[in-house]
């Protein structure tokens, strides 16, 4: 086995616990859909069969959970029986095929009608055989008559008449429930690759109790219900396969639900009429160009043509104290005379250093947080002239940088995604679209197994009895309901593997009496890893689930309602807790939201993703009271003495924006949107 195999092949446990929660989430979503369907009148025979088969599908889906040890339906289960699970998965897949074939595949009315008749004839013939064997003459007459009636309908059907003669003959006998073979339906669904089909064949053999199902009984504890890696892998693979079919059926059913009427949405422009289409396109092009000119410049653009590194300014050139301090950190010591102010002692700044200083002070230094997301208030580039108002003590410094770099400073109008206009995030904020996104979260984020040899920390400020293990469990009832994930019914133990994060999260001060407990799981803990970066090859920032969660965890207490719903859904799916990105580690990296843009592209490189997965868990939230429940044990308790507290900081300008006529609030999506609309209107009127 090569090194890369080792990292890419999960253990049986990891495989099982990665697959099962996703399966549970898919089933939960399916059950929610059945509730929605229950209130809808069926408008066609297809819709009727789609809902009948979908309900059946969910029911088999739940039965599968009863066969899965550790699932909510079988929490204390210890019986690992793949052979018994296989027929259920087989049944689920077949139901799903019929759901697609009879209910949701978009086909013409004619074909659809014949599909239903063929299925009904098959049903009739089967019942007939049953009653013939049982000798029930009354029922035999009824079903013979029904079968004849269906055959008559088929004979007079134009679509049926076009089918090959041999097929018609066989179908008229009621030999098959469908016109298409299983493989043909799978082809049309485009759902299983060759490996998946091979495994489905393997499942079918087990469902039929062919020799394959019992030949190796006893080898490595297999086939007797005892816990073993082979059966666990098989169960995981089968559940994973079932999960794909449920997800497909869910999506097909969702597409059939009538769309909720959209609220009037500012994003949708009226479709251009043919006369004005040309003008619309032209205006749009102008607008795009002007939007491009309102983006901030890259350092490379500001320094192009001057890589000499020669000093242009020094820290003594500046009057604003923040600017001066920042420039002493960025500049280089050099005893030459400053070309601008003549100082020998000032830290010297080359063109690159001036550009870095300008970005750090005016862009990073003006970042404002929106309800979700964040954006700088000021940007600079070479296309614009300065249009911001600054305090009197900063004015000369601003002009100096303006001249040195040939740039203009302006109030920045952010791209809307930066301030939370991200579709999955918007859907999470609305109670009626929230469940669908939570289901996606459970499906798309991986599981992290916290093993018994891994430790994490929990810090307490002045506990009543520092030596007692229960002081380090989730907070008592009277203190519940304030944190990001806990509710009055579900306490949460917050911990971290990163000591610094613990200190930050507890907002400690030097005079605090602090104790830290080192905790370890008593059994493997299954955690939904929301700190992982999703690779979303085809999603823009506006559609990104990854961006949505990133912004959710950066947001303050107004977002807790959503994170609590995610936690409760994860708990329902059998997770013991969550791994989530720390508010403070995100802040520590500084460059919100730019870091995010880079973050995504970097993590798309698979090696880096692997590193990210393996690294320290910065933050974890365990459901319930894991110490009292025996899930986690206290290995050690220490007193913590803070001897130094360090802050790192940047400076930014004071902007007297209230008095400025150019300023608009960049954190207000509707204000930003209005700017775009107004600009469009202005260009449009210009013609
Ligand atoms: Zn100087």
Descriptive report:
The protein is an alpha+beta fold and 687 residues long. It folds into three domains: 8-106 and 182-256; 278-414, no CATH class; 427-640, no CATH class. The chain contains 25 helices and 14 strands. It has helices spanning 3-8, 12-38, 45-66, 82-104, 109-134, 137-155, 158-161, 165-172, 182-189, 194-207, 229-256, 274-292, 299-303, 321-330, 351-363, 395-405, 423-429, 431-444, 499-505, 545-554, 560-572, 583-588, 594-603, 606-614, 669-686; strands spanning 313-314, 348-349, 367-369, 374-376, 378-381, 408-411, 447-450, 456-461, 492-495, 514-521, 525-529, 577-579, 620-623, 632-640. The strands form five sheets. A five-stranded mixed beta sheet has the order 7-11-12-13-9, with helices on one face. A three-stranded antiparallel beta sheet has the order 8-10-14. A two-stranded antiparallel ribbon has the order 1-2. Zinc ion is lined by residues 313-314, 316-317, 338, 340-341, 343, 346.
Oligomer: single chain
Mean pLDDT: 84
Question: How many strand units?
Answer: 14
Q: Considering DSSP H and I runs of 4 or more, what fraction of the residues is helical?
A: 40-55%
Distinct ligand kinds: zinc ion
What structural category characterises the helix and strand content? alpha+beta
Supply Rg. Answer: 32 Å
In total, how many domains does the architecture comprise?
A: 3
Largest β-sheet summary? 5 strands, mixed
Strand order of the largest sheet: 7-11-12-13-9
Overall body shape: globular
Strand content: 5-15%
List low-pLDDT spans. 1-7, 260-270, 587-614
Gap between N and C termini, in Å? 67 Å
What is the overall number of helices?
25
